[in-house]
């Protein structure tokens, strides 16, 4: 089982101004969403997990091994990060070359890298664009290419940064299915996200960050039942949950299927 253990982690960009303060979290194979308002420390936490920045105190262990002495290159074989803005990630002239770059960069031979890229493009529904220039495609499609470029690396841990930005309903459904597929494969899937509806539908566990500390860490449904703490973190309920609350249903529904069941049992 893939596991990340965060112990007493603190970080500051400037002296005496902590962005994260004494964070203790263990990530297991449950799909996990990290939510919080802008400035809560979500992106900083992900950068620390990826080894892009170093903490001022504390430690991060992946499967029992501290990342403190590991290079960003070695961590790339363990953690894949899909950037929020695909334009910060994409730089090749063709989609296929872009998706092959990651596997090649971690030492996979060209034949295997190409096969992995083709499989990843199929998974995100972008096979027909493999010879296209990524910048001839729309933002939504470039986001799917960025996802494919990480999937092709086959890392045991995958982090999505705002995966639903610029995605229509069909593309969101693709991403949901990808997350479920990765979980089925035994991978650890994390996301930082503002889309509460997507959290409710896709993630088993939710962690709420507020002012650099963990405010709530629980099963997703239990997190959204804690309305007062969510208000403290300046977060709203998913749309379906808000509707079920307004209608005073016995249970707090998070998804449409839950709502239909709860409505007929009302």
From TrEMBL:
GO CC, any one term: ATP-binding cassette (ABC) transporter complex
Key words of the record: ATP-binding, Cell membrane, Membrane, Nucleotide-binding, Translocase, Transport
Superkingdom field: Bacteria
SUPFAM superfamilies recorded: P-loop containing nucleoside triphosphate hydrolases (SSF52540)
Compartments where located: Cell membrane
Recorded GO MF terms: ATP binding; ATP hydrolysis activity; ATPase-coupled transmembrane transporter activity
PANTHER family referenced in this protein's UniProt entry, alphabetically: HEAVY METAL TRANSPORTER
Stated name of the protein: ABC transporter ATP-binding protein
